[in-house]
Design goal:
single chain, 44% helix, OB fold (Dihydrolipoamide Acetyltransferase, E2P), DNA recombination, 5-stranded mixed β-barrel, DNA polymerase, domain 1, Helicase, Ruva Protein, domain 3, 9 helices, elongated
């Protein structure tokens, strides 16, 4: 399976790019959010990919980070959510937004994605509430861009080094700390998501403090 490709963008369309890898063109579908972050034709790009195999078609879907790819695969496990719907959700909310919506049970936020109705959004939240903390705990990760023209045939590339704690990286560390303190993944994810929403710029220590305050028994 093709797990990551890198090369030159030949052209961009509304929902995909064509990437030239040593003379071979790979058509890769991406979310609007990912497409907006890519360079124009002639620019070099590296994307993690997920290959969808059906009887009549093979399609590659591209992601800038491994956590975005993992969310895509998790979203597609929900009944009624295909690859295009998953990309629509990723494009509308981004990885952090998806995790926050699921952790808080905010299915209405998921309906911001084009073509996603209330029933599908509710299924996303209900079916992934116990699985989402595991992906959220991955945090924000980035990988060094491979050499231009390199194609990596690997379904599960090695986890790259984490970036400095901030954003979802800080949320992942806070989530890990709370679960180590004995809170369930669901409780911890909900508290961290709410704390991050209230204080978007908070670093790990502050997120832990705010989350513990939310988790404290009210009397």
């Amino acid at each position: 399976m093709i797990g990551r490709i890198a090369g030159r963008i030949d052209y961009r369309a509304a929902d995909h790019v064509l990437i030239d890898v040593r003379g071979v063109g790979y058509l890769v579908y991406c979310s609007e959010r990912t497409l907006s972050a890519l360079p124009g034709p002639g620019g070099q790009v590296a994307l993690y990919t997920d290959l969808l195999v059906r009887e009549d078609i093979l399609q590659l879907f591209g992601f800038t980070t491994l956590i975005e790819k993992e969310w895509h695969r998790l979203l597609m496990s929900v009944q009624g959510v295909g690859a295009r719907a998953s990309l629509a959700i990723l494009g509308a909310l981004g990885p952090d937004g998806i995790g926050r919506a699921i952790a808080l049970g905010d299915w209405n936020a998921v309906t911001a994605a084009k073509g996603i109705g209330a029933k599908t959004a509710q299924r996303v939240v209900n079916e992934l509430k116990d699985k989402a903390p595991g992906v959220m705990a991955m945090g924000a990760t980035t990988a060094p861009a491979p050499d231009a023209g390199e194609a990596v045939i690997d379904a599960a590339p090695a986890m790259p080094a984490a970036v400095a704690p901030s954003g979802s990286g800080a949320q992942a560390e806070a989530l890990s700390a709370l679960t180590n303190l004995g809170y369930s993944p669901g409780e911890a994810a909900g508290a961290v998501a709410q704390a991050a929403g209230n204080a978007p710029r908070a670093e790990t220590a502050e997120l832990i403090r705010l989350s513990l305050k939310l988790l404290a028994p009210r009397g």
